Amino acid sequence: NPDVLLRIGNLYLDTKNFEDARKTFRELLTQEPFNEQAYLGIAFSYEIQKDTTGAIRAYEEALQANESFDEVRENLVGLYSSRGSWDQALELYKKRIETDSSDYFARLRVADLYLAKGDTSSAKDGYRQLMKDFPKDWRAYYTISRIQLQNNEIDLAAENIKQVLTLNDKIPAPWLILGQ
After folding, report:
1. 96-129 burial, b for 16+ CB within 10 Å, e for fewer?
2. pLDDT by residue (tens digit) across 131-165?
3. Where is 71: in which H helix or E strand?
4. I want to staple 25 with a disulfide (CB 3.0 to 4.6 A). Which of 30, 41, 55, 79 is the partner?
5. pTM of the prediction?
């Protein structure tokens, strides 16, 4: 039973019996080849052991099985980012956008990753496109205002902060200015 195998695999993880956890999750994948939780369990077993290479391999295998595994993608992006492998991280979300160009989160992540990579120009282009395509979402306005403040573009930053406050009145203005 797949549910039982998932529980057993998680129990093995909890007790730090990583080899048996991986075996159990792999057995589950023979019954349900597209079970995201089984792939996550395998990758987590490597991550807990600080085996980043093994975890990356497991996440990559999962995305080969099914590119729509969002949690797997986000975890793999996190591992790539922690290694400074920005281009690999970017490629994962660019592929997602090729599949669904209206995926706001993937497009936001691409802009965020460009910013983390230090490519401010591409990040700003990404945020501007998000502001154009999704004018009611405050996050791109907020992030581009942070970049503008760092570049002493005070008037532009102020306009974008006003837009954030218009779109989301639950965010305290000092929080925006201080960059919390």
Report:
1. beeeeeebeebbbbbbbbbbebebeebbbebbee
2. 999 999 899 999 999 899 889 999 999 899 889 88
3. helix 70-82
4. 41
5. 0.81
